[in-house]
Amino acid sequence: MTDAPEREVAEEVSRIAEDIDTMEIRGAATIADAAARALAAQADASEAESPSAFLDELRAAARVLCDTRPTAVSLPNALRYVFRDVRGATVEELRESVRESADEFCERLDTAQHDLGRVGANRLRDGDTIMTHCHSTDVLACVEGAVEQGKSLSAYVKETRPRNQGHITAEALSEMGVDVTLIVDSAARRYLNDVDHVLVGADSIAADGSVINKIGTSGLAVNARDRGTPIVCAAQTIKLHPGTLTGHTVEIEMRDESEVIDPETASEIGDPEVLNPAFDVTPPRYVDAIITERGQFPPESIVTLMRELFGESPIQPWEL
Ligand SMILES: O=C(COP(=O)(O)O)[C@H](O)[C@H](O)COP(=O)(O)O
């Protein structure tokens, strides 16, 4: 790893990093968009007097952003994308180039989600019932695409403890005209027989086709397989984890126990140890398809797309 000197990052970068850390900004695609905009903000705010100082500041900003949440690979992938196209012999040229690259990335992110939605929509038939877990904008794009095709859908929406992101999904689906039923997480199996497709998003997809998504996804997938209900993962290619091509595993974020239980209640029940993993890993055998903006893939074949997109030796954004 290149050791960039410690540098102060722009206030806007610290604010965005804080918002990602506290989950004011959350969900893999939204985090990617915010991270790219943060690099542009760093470029705008920079008072560096040399190109190398300017680039050191950008690398420092990338580190601060990457340190927020470890599981969503869309974050380092976004930074990598922006860095890749940065060119210039002067600070002003570099600054302009970062702005352009970040804008282009955010546009591509929107287009990819729209294109993915059209692919996902084709799987859904008029009158289908889906089940969702957490809140995924890629999943919502598929539903939106189906609704635009004139299909009428119903949804069982899992609450998604401990942070109840299912509430955001319920609201978004209702606004699209989907008939929504909210259920607690543990009720999922009971209703799977009434469901045509389980639709989930992803924070990372590993080279073997494993889907890393909100905690509870793997249990849902095992239950869906047992009931014969197809499970589909909607994930733009920004979710493909290049490090897994070279044997790295995806770090699962452990969050604070206060999300699970307040200190007073914990004390009343004898202060048990509390574990709060934010994500889990669903092996490819439980996933029927991964839907991307490049089309639909069986999970086991995703490695081919990863090689095409990333090559074989991915590096961290601040190494560029
Ligand atoms: O697991 C989550 C969000 O977790 P958290 O709430 O902890 O960030 C979402 O399913 C993925 O990030 C995909 O989201 P999107 O499809 O919007 O990228």
Q: Write out the distinct hetero groups bound to the structure.
A: ribulose-1,5-diphosphate
Number of individual domains: 2
CATH class category name of the largest domain: Alpha Beta
| Poorly predicted runs | none
Function: Catalyzes the isomerization of ribose 1,5-bisphosphate (R15P) to ribulose 1,5-bisphosphate (RuBP).
GO molecular function: ribose 1,5-bisphosphate isomerase activity
InterPro entries: IF-2B-related, IF_2B-like_C, Initiation_fac_2B_a/b/d, M1Pi_N, NagB/RpiA_transferase-like, R15Pi
EC number: 5.3.1.29
Question: What does the model show?
Answer:
- It catalyses: alpha-D-ribose 1,5-bisphosphate = D-ribulose 1,5-bisphosphate.
- InterPro entries: IF-2B-related (IPR000649), IF_2B-like_C (IPR042529), Initiation_fac_2B_a/b/d (IPR011559), M1Pi_N (IPR027363), NagB/RpiA_transferase-like (IPR037171), R15Pi (IPR005250).
- One of its GO terms (molecular function) is ribose 1,5-bisphosphate isomerase activity.
- This protein has 320 residues and is α/β, with parallel strands linked by helices.
- The protein folds into two domains: 109 residues, translation initiation factor eif-2b, domain 1 (Four Helix Bundle (Hemerythrin (Met), subunit A), Up-down Bundle), CATH 1.20.120.420; 195 residues, Rossmann fold (3-Layer(aba) Sandwich), CATH 3.40.50.10470.
- Helix content is 44%, strand content 12%.
- The chain is built from eleven helices and ten strands.
- The strands form two sheets. Strands 3-2-1-4-7-9-10 form a seven-stranded mixed sheet, sandwiched between helices. A three-stranded antiparallel sheet has the order 5-6-8, with helices on one face.
- It is globular, with a radius of gyration of 20 Å.
- The model has no long low-confidence stretch (mean pLDDT 95).
- Ribulose-1,5-diphosphate binds next to helix 2, helix 6 and strand 6.
